[in-house]
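re the bet — no i am not wrong, look at it urself. input seq straight from the record:
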Amino acid sequence: MISDEIKTQALEIAQVLEDGKGEQVTVIDVSELNSWTDCFVIATIKSSAHWQGLVKQVSDYVKAHNMQIHQTHNKLPDGDDWNLIDIGPVVVHLMSASAREFYELEKLWHAGTVLK
């Protein structure tokens, strides 16, 4: 079961993404479904410049809350379709609209609890 602290962090990161104009921001508790993270925060991005801005905002949040980014990944070589920020208990997925439609993470992780 997800802790209140991690739930709060995930919801606050979702708010950071919404404030940065991330679209269709969703938070899913996946803590009962795997052993490597507790929450996914998923947002749709408009461009690589938009992605860079959101990464900066998430990084600022992480630093301000004494958290650590373990890794960032680009799913595709051009870096514009799916970018992942691993914060340990929270994994942020920044996806283009086409990548989000193709991969359908919400359907893939449908057994998780949608928190937002």
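see?? The mean pLDDT is 91. told u. also The chain has four helices and six strands. so pay up
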